[in-house]
Amino acid sequence: MATRFEIVMHGDDPVLLRSAGEEAIREINRIAARFSFYDPASELSRINRDAFDREVFIAGDLFELLKTCETCWKMTTGVFDPTIGPLMKLWGFGAKRTDIPSVNDIKMALEMTGWQHISLDPDKTSIRFKTNGVKIDLGGIAKGWALDEATILLREAGVTSALLHGGTSSIVGIGTPPRELAWTIGIEDPYEKVHTPKWFTTSDIVDSALSVSSIHGKSHEVDDIEYGHVLNPLTGMAVSGPYVSVVEADSAVIADALSTALLAGYRPKQSHLEQAHLKKALIQAEVHHKTDSGWKLIAAK
Amino acid sequence: MFRNRLSRRNFLKKSSFGTLSGVLASAELIPSEKTSSLNHAALEDQISCAVIGFGQWGREISKAIHELEDTDLTVICDHFPLMLRRAKRDFPAVKTESDYQTVLADESITAVFVATPTHFHKDIVIASLKAGKHVYCEAPLAHTMEDARAIAQAARNAKGQIFQTGLLYRTEPQYRSVYGFVRSGALGKSSMTRSQWHYKDSWRRPSSSGARAEALNWRLDEKVSLGLVGEVGIQQIDTCMWLNEQLPVAVSGFGHVAFWRDGRTVPDTIQSVIEFPSGENMLFDATLVSGFDAEYDLYFGSDSTVILRDNKAWMFKEVDAPQLGWEVYARKDRFYKETGIALLANATKLDALGTDPTADDPNAKAPIWHAIKAFADNFNYGPFEPVVNYQIAYQATVVVIKANEAVKTGTKIVFKPEWFSIDG
Asked: Residue B301: CB partners within 8 Å, gap ≥ 6?
């Protein structure tokens, strides 16, 4: 996941809090190693390498995560899709470029993209790829998953007030801070170079998760259009706006998946609020920051 | 219990695997081992395994058993319901059990992996052997000489049953490769070993229940804990005993609570000097206060020094050392102002295949995977004496029990030869 995780905890027993935090961080590190797209020896790499040739048996928790991916893929009618590895490689956001991929190249990458190429067997907790070349990249939701797992451990240890985040974009609040009604999360303007005390927007969370996605950061600017590192798996095109989305949900993994999907064009139906334990979904409405006209509430309970 | 399990199925399985690996070599930088297409549950000659103790390490053992095609993770046993809930989530198809006696009474279970706190090993291991199970026991064997002896005696008397212990590096391919390298004299005249284990951690496990927290934190209870030198250091100390092919003659120790002043008496920082008859002493230090430079072993010699870290190894040559024929072609890595020659376990094989030994190894497995693979191979193709048998485990356990005594008392303890005898 190559990102920094932090935990803030409140309580009467600092020894317990410290040990609980250590256990949570150990689990996060364990997940980062297991689900790494880049480590050739990780469990995820084993799937990507072998699952077309043969059925791969996987641990129960990884299977649970893949089932969550499938649920989100269905709910977003394919806009959230962790099989975008070939497309990500094609767009190459790791390096600067002044053009965008050709229609033909995108078409070829799309043939290897889509959760419909994945087959999960719940009885055997196994996975199989139906198409050669498919690669699963859990980068969009691994942080959220790790935070959810860490949250379970903290709660089991008796922690009742804590804030966890991964890379400041995925956040979980347990309970509330002392003498406060909620954890107030400030969201920065990704284009604002100078720090100002005024937040872009804020969100109050209690026993819930928040995910912020942005196209800014790893992106290409071609003909004055910024193509961000969020891709629409249905068209193969990089997203150029809206440029920030925020989702609040019961679980961080769902919030992560849907905040990415919001940028790529997904708009939740009212029924999704219940299905995904979704509390709120926002996007920054305008494409260009300079003509910013505020936030648009997409859905809310 | 049946042995000599090189069945036709197993023979074919292993043969086709070897062919497959060879064919794939040309397609990738380093050939990837392919996982089996066979359904785990359908394999007739898989070893039906039970893991007793589902703490942090029991979870890793379970994962390795689950991954190996030779072994079937059948039951996980722990007397804490929370651990069984976690086990069920990680391995939904696996049975869970709270009483290890029930596991031992189950005739379908062939092998038992004991990953409980050290002071619980004796009763479980002896009962498992008595029940006719093959046993893998975590290291150290026990927290007292009496218990360690009782386990070793039971293992010796259990003819035809595998008894292997978790001294991991003796079955790890990279370490085995370095063993051959060192024993061939590549260090020149060996002078000393320096090993460290540094990890910033309180070593405390959390629980919302007081009684549960006490049980979980047995490593901080000086009545049953062998401290850092025993619970952690045994792996590196045993490796030194193995590479030196000697038993130590004395051990000195120092330790104190430097940072984690939460009422504990078990030191969070220790140093130990383990003396060998040849004078090639080992300096081992461990701390929970600083994570700087993590874990490694340095074997110093007149011609070269070898460093082992992260299951990798490098050799640093002295300027007056003779040149070795192969080193011209070897991969070299910079370490500050030094240049290390990478010692790769399978470098020759990779080179012969026209592959790049410097690429990350997609087949890399954790040391515990190799340990359990060795156990499974013994079951399928043995019987042969386990690489880490009861004698080796007993001796290593004696060394760390005495090392911990030395740390606690700040004294030097001279080993009596009879301590290393299983019969006393």
From this structure: B186, B187, B188, B189, B190, B191
Assign A143 to helix, strand or coil: helix
Contact A44, A61 (CB under 8 A): no
Q: What is the dihedral of CA A87, A93, A97, A101, to 10 degrees?
A: 10
**Contact: B207, A55; criterion CB under 8 Å:** no
C-alpha dist (Å) from residue A103 to A108, A227, B316? 9, 15, 53
Average pLDDT along chain A, 301 residues, taken 10 residues at a time: 92 95 96 89 91 93 94 93 88 73 90 95 93 91 96 96 95 97 86 64 90 77 71 86 83 93 84 74 52 57 58
CATH top-level class for B8-168+381-389? alpha beta
What are the chain A neighbours of B259 within 8 Å (beta carbons)? none
Beta bridge partners of A171: A165, A210
Q: Is B206 near chain A, with CB under 8 Å?
A: yes
ipTM comes to 0.85
List the one residue out of B297, B271, B286 whose CA is nearest residue B232: B286
* Interface contact flag, B35 A56, Cβ < 8 Å: yes
Which one is the CATH code of B171-365+394-418: 3.40.50.1000, 3.30.360.10, 3.40.50.620, 3.90.930.12?
A: 3.30.360.10
Cβ pair B39:A53 closer than 8 A: no
- Nearest-5° angle of CA A288, CA A293, CA A294? 105
